[in-house]
Amino acid sequence: MNSPQEAERLRLFISRITDYAIYMLAPDGTVASWNAGAQRFKGYAAEEIIGEHFSRFYTQQDRDAGVPANALKQARESGKFEAEGWRVRKDGTQFWASVVIDPIRDESGELVGFAKVTRDISEKRAVQEALRESEQRFRMLVQGVTDYAIYMLSPAGEITNWNAGARRIKQYEQDEVLGAHFSKFYTDEDRERGLPAHALAQAASQGRFEAEGWRVRKDGTRFWAHVVIDPIRNEDGELVGFAKITRDITERLEATQALEKAREVLFQSQKLEAIGKLTGGVAHDFNNLLSVITNGLDLLRPIVKDLEAVSLIDSMSKAAMRGASLTNQLLTFARQQPVTPEPRELNRLIAGFAPVLRRAVRSSVKFEIEVTGVLPAVMIDVALFEAALLNLVVNANDATLDGGSIRVATQVSDFANGQIGSLPDGRYVVVSVQDTGSGMSEEVLARAVEPFFTTKAMGKGTGLGLSQVYGMVQQFGGELKIVSQLAQGTTICLYFPVSSEEALPDPAPPPTDKVLIVDDQPDVLEMASEMFRTLGFHVITANSGRQALEVLTSTPDIHLLFSDVVMPGLSGVELGKKAQELSPNTRVLLASGYTTPAGSLKGFEFLPKPYRIADILKKLRALG
User: Fold this and answer.
1) What is residue 8's predicted lDDT score, i.e. its pLDDT?
2) What is the CATH number of domain 342-497?
3) What is the rounded CA–CA span in Å between residue 30 and residue 11?
4) Which of helix, strand or coil describes residue 98?
5) Which of 357, 610, 379, 402 has its CA nearest to residue 498?
6) Which of 86, 305, 432, 453 could lock onto 493 through a cystine, CB 3.0 to 4.6 A?
7) 145-248 to CATH, choices 3.10.28.10, 3.90.1030.10, 3.40.120.10, 3.30.450.20
8) How far apart are CA 31 and CA 25, in angstroms?
9) Assigned superfamily of 4-121
10) pLDDT band (50, 70, 90) for residue 289
11) Interacting residues of 334 by C-beta distance below 8 A, sequence separation 6+
12) H/E element holding 245?
């Protein structure tokens, strides 16, 4: 037992404590003692409260619910009562209290009262409540976010919670993903590469993981995601999980790609424009030089008698003609070639030109033309368009193996601004040439329309074919697009803006008549013959005016005479007059290296050398 002195010291100690209300209750709950802490917390002096029932410190609601009696009952029966709740001070204000009630028994075990310890923990509760409210607000914030998928992962990567943004972006409900590994959102390729594990490892070791990449929704579709993973550690620094934030930035990726595409289109356009300006200037100057050379050679030819010198002049003339052909192609690319645009309906134009296109394709390659219905008119130069289309078909034929196919097709489509190259909004007639040939690599495709660029063997091509087609379609306000893959063929599309004008009547289709070609230069004669064969003519040749006159006399139904003007003996002009005397229906087309050949050309069409198939077609249409 404690001595009286010790008991007194304990009483003094308890009575002096101010941070706790420590007092005794009688078995019926009346207050039997009161310390300084009780007076400070509850506002009652000892003489005011001793003998009163302790239930007066409870709220009316708790008293009505029987909380005080229940507290004593629980302390008596179980040996202790502990709880927190609102208590009432003398002035009626309330405070949040932590309460402990212990039963006090004598040596015989008889209940003699209760020891009650109360502490005012209002500040602590306020802090806890503020924290709880903050956490609640944070939870509401996270759950309310729909633009971001915000969720937690265990240290092993299993999903432990799920917000509305995650549900919207990834399409899974919370009960479908809780406990699942977050790698399910990655593509098969990324999982095989171990990217999910790498992401967690980097976040754990470096304090953060941030990246962009493809992720997979529940329906299997992909989206481009921006991902941040942060490690979560407890007060001891132990890793307890990860916070993962994912945002769908597919639209931003598409916008960036569209901007990059627009920049590439602009760069390509500016590059080709610069090349075109340089090319056009050089071609004009070079054409002037070639005119001097070809005219000078024609002046020398009649006065040179030495056979070796004549052969040399012929070789020089042939080379000059090749140079002139190249400069004309360069001028077309540079969009500086004189043109005569007319409103034309391309389906009918292509149908009329079909025999020429078919002859340009080997018999071992299937060739088909799909032109149905009536197209709106477009503004084009017929000869340039036909030459360009023939160029594309010839290229397709060169690239296609035996057993392959080439298809020419047309359609009309509406396009938005920038959808096709730099074309503005509008309606366009599209002419496509598709083959099943060797195709192009990305590197070749990027340079395909540059002048002089070619993948053909040395001497097999000038590299001006596609550049000429590009220049032609650009000259009429259109665009050229190439779609190609190695070993999977090529499709080249020409886009022409629809004209508001009505289409002119169809030009006469390429003739299949007999033509008599006359030239005293074998190389020129051979080249001209090949051109007319390509156009579908039955070709007869003669190397002098006298020989040609014999052919005209002996051969009926010669519909066209194509003759050089300057020839020894009988000139082209004289031959033309005699031809029309023999047959008034015979049309006459004369050619010369002189810009103003000697003799009257009245009643004849004239074609200056050097000439191309497109030039011949123009003159044939003029002849009717």
Assistant:
1) 53
2) 3.30.565.10
3) 19
4) strand
5) 379
6) 432
7) 3.30.450.20
8) 5
9) PAS domain (3.30.450.20)
10) low
11) 276, 277, 279, 280, 283, 471
12) strand 239-248
pLDDT at 620: 83
Instruction: Quote the CA–CA distance of 413 and 430 in Å, as a whole number.
Output: 7
Question: Do the Cβ atoms of 517 and 558 come closer than 8 Å?
Answer: no
Residue 202 token pair:
């980097």
**Closest-CA residue to 613 (of 559, 519, 532):** 532
CA distance 563 to 516: 8
Of 111, 165, 118, residue with least CA distance to 23 = 118
Q: At what angle do helices 613-623 and 522-534 cross, to 10 degrees?
A: 70
Give 257: exposed, middle or buried? Use CB within 10 Å, 0-12, 13-18, 19+.
Answer: exposed
Q: How many helices (H) and strands (E) does the chain have?
A: 20, 20
Common-topology check for domains 4-121 and 145-248: yes
Q: Delimit the domains of the chain by residue range.
A: 4-121, 145-248, 257-331, 342-497, 514-623
Q: What residues does 588 pair with on adjacent strands?
A: 561
Give the span between the Cα atoms of 334 and 278, in whole angstroms.
8
Q: What pLDDT shows up at residue 550? A: 85
